[in-house]
Amino acid sequence: MNKDRRKRLATIIKEAGQLMEQLEQLKEAEEQAMDNTSEGLQGTERYEQMEQAAETLDVAVYSLEEIINSLEEIA
Length: 75
Description:
Mean pLDDT: 96
Number of helices: 2
Strand content: under 5%
Structural class: mainly alpha
């Protein structure tokens, strides 16, 4: 890989890392909202949607981390 492509790849890796951080923050905010949900609302459809969103964000963070790691191997 030449210098220009390596530089472009480094930029992509950096941006992907920033995106991963933003997704992690969203996941943490959703988990915090779940933790602050009263017991009477836990188990409701809305709560289950929040739980699913947090799980999906967690998978997205993990997947993006794997992509970043793979890209770093060739950078």
